[in-house]
Amino acid sequence: MKSTIICIVCPVSCPVDVEWTKEDGVLGIKNHLCKLAGPYVESELFDPRRLLTTSIPVDSGDWPLVSVKSDPPIPKNMMLEAMDEITGVRVKAPIKVGDVLMTDILGTGCDIVATRNVKKV
Ligand code: SF4
Questions:
Q1: What DSSP string describes 75-121?
Q2: Closest ligand 1 atom number to CA of residue 40
Q3: 8 A C-beta contact, residue 59 and residue 30
Q4: Where are the domains of the chain?
Q5: What's the predicted TM-score (pTM) here?
Q6: Which residue's alpha carbon is nearest to atom 2 within ligand 1?
Q7: 27 C-alpha vs ligand 1 centroid, how far in Å?
Q8: Which residues line ligand 1 (CB under 6 A)?
Q9: Which one, of 46, 94, 90, lies nearest residue 112 by Cα?
Q10: Distinct helix (H) and strand (E) counts, the chain
Q11: One CATH from 1.10.260.40, 3.90.1150.10, 3.40.50.300, 3.10.530.10 for 53-114
Q12: 14-67, pLDDT tens digit by residue?
């Protein structure tokens, strides 16, 4: 099969031409400017993932919400289910950047981590 996949690893956005099969994986790529296209195209074809970003309510904090992200990115087809899992969760201040607020969400091996500090008040 032949496909063109836009590499989104950096802002250049190379339109990478890919030859692949389900059985043998990626056979070759063209039209890319660097080696980062290979792993990206492989993942996009066989295990597409996305960074989930949202926020979670905080009790007793100097901010009412803490921004969070998935670490690492979660399977693309589980984004909505993961959002459902996060909805309703509340956390307590203090929170530091990098704190793991939820572990192994939906058995994906991905954690939900804080991306800002929230002080206790
Ligand atoms: S192939 Fe390299 S240069 Fe092109 S978009 Fe991907 S990361 Fe950027």
A1: EGGGHHHHHHHHTT--EES-B-TT-EEE-SGGGSS-EEEESS-B-B-
A2: 6
A3: no
A4: 2-47, 53-114
A5: 0.83
A6: 34
A7: 19
A8: 7, 9-10, 12-14, 32-34, 36-37
A9: 90
A10: 2, 10
A11: 3.10.530.10
A12: 999 999 999 999 999 999 999 999 999 999 999 999 999 999 999 999 999 999
pLDDT of residue 19: 97
Structure token digits, residue 1: 């099969």
| Residue nearest atom 8 in ligand 1 by C-alpha distance | 10
- Per-residue pLDDT tens digits for 59-117: 999 999 999 999 999 999 999 999 999 999 999 999 999 999 999 999 999 999 999 99
**By three-state DSSP, how is residue 42 classified?**
helix
Report which ligand 1 atom has the smallest distance to the Cα of 13: 5
- pLDDT score of 5: 97
Which is it for the CA torsion 113, 118, 120, 121, positive or negative? negative
